[in-house]
Sequence to fold (413 residues):
Amino acid sequence: MLWDLAADTWGREERAAVARVVASGRYTLGPEVERFERAFAAYHGRRFAVMVNSGSSANLIAVASLFYRQKRPLQRGDQAIVPAISWSTTYHPLQQYGLRLRFVDVEADTLNIDTAQLEAALTPSTRAVIAVSVLGNPAALDKVRAFADRHGLAFLEDNCESLDAELDGKKTGTFGDLSTFSFFFSHHISTGEGGMVLTDDPELDGLLRSVRAHGWTRDVPPGALGGLVGVSPTPPGAGVSPAPPGTAAIDDRSDDAFAEAYRFILPGYNVRPQEINGAVGSEQLKKLPAMTKQRRANWRLFRNAFGTDERFLIQRENGKSSSFSFTMIVRPESGLDRNAVFKPLKAAGIGYRMITGGCFPRHDAIRHFDHDCLGSLANANMAHDRGFFVGNHPFDLAKQIERLRDVLDGLKA
Ligand SMILES: Cc1ncc(COP(=O)(O)O)c(C=O)c1O
Fold:
């Protein structure tokens, strides 16, 4: 294969980190994960980082935490505004927690949510907005932030595809009340599988830590949940009713160590990462600035090669992209059929795939969603029907981009 969609970015340091963990005998959530969490939070200038086993799990516990927070918790039946293009597990937790989704189109060139449509998408039951920076390219996160603040909405920023991108000098992943990341194999940094949630809110941090691990108190910093109910473990029937949905869980610690060790306060999961993921994450994070620099250099080569090719629409950079991959939409006016492009790409050993998850309402899973769409989602549909991407990697792709240019120059309309 000349140019694959994903590439291994682990070197000597990551392999040594794996060996260190294996030698330590401690495999699950522990000091290595905590070290990576601290470094990752510091890299973004945010207060709290909670690592999990995938970006999907990051989205899952982020949504859960918004349902259990004390002030203005989300409730079943609330509406969330979402972009029409993202990955499936941006949406699935929203469905699983009973939210109604309103899909808004993306901009044809940035592939990110069209913020000009946000006000029109608002209804009296809108309580949350989700923004996704697609494939390294920052969405207009400042505008989404202002929109959320104007209307008192929760803002969940799915940054799983755009680690290390920037908007006006501010990193993506620092705009949402909660911002999520993926460290899957093909992403900007890889821990094999892995994900992270960032927040500045101590209550959300406590909720995330509880929901991440069984819904227990063990990993929750004392006092993080506000000590709202202030009740220590109580025998059944002793007159304490469970906290109603939407009130923060009981988190005061009693001095009964036996009960505290297994004290469940929320309907949680087990989505903990392993120490290997944390140890590798710390090594990858050190390499991130250099990797982003190389990805951006490749992006400039790609843009020079195709920016003026009228047959294709390539992603317009908003802010500073960390360039996950190179998108191409075969313009309808080009007279080209997408399959006619795929054939020579395949023959040349160039990997290609759908842009993120395409236009999500086009997938069968949508039958299970309570949803509607604002308008026809024309741009998301165009990306779904006529778009594809090829990979970007943290090494020089000059030769591969040149080959792509040659292959596409050979196309006949
Ligand atoms: C926007 C977005 N959100 C969430 C995810 C899920 O991340 P993971 O594959 O780590 O579960 C992805 C994965 O690619 C993604 O692109």
User: Anything to note?
Assistant: The two ends are 26 Å apart (CA to CA). The mean pLDDT is 94. Residues 275-306 form the longest helix (32 residues).
